[in-house]
Give the backbone structure.
Amino acid sequence: MGCFVNYKKALLNTPGMVGGYMLEKTYNGIVQFTLATTAAEIAQVFERLPDGVSKGLAAELDVAGDVHRYDAEAKRAYYFEKVGTNLTVWSWNDVQRPHEAGELIFLVVSSVASLDERLASDFYVRATNRPVTPSPAP
């Protein structure tokens, strides 16, 4: 059984486990980033995902190392990447159509540069022809 399947089970089998200090960053109204570094954090990521996004995700990550998903109901695209024992998740809101998600992920996986806030926002603009919206004020 792969390591990401075991991460999900680790949280489910740990009484009272609430999670750690997972790095989560919302860069603007569109782009979000999560870095999960422990089994409990990775399990938290999986638990928060809609069923249609999480189904088969752990097994695919173990085989491929990176996986993308599109949640048509939430209009949200995801890019998951296994880096050693860590899990990085980039997600984009307001992805209105599956072809936008496809173009967005194509830009991500074809890039020779490491994904960061600037590239993630730029790829969204290029894939959707819509601007990135600023984050709402707290």
In short: The chain has six helices and five strands. The chain has one domain: 3-128. Residues 3-128 form one domain.
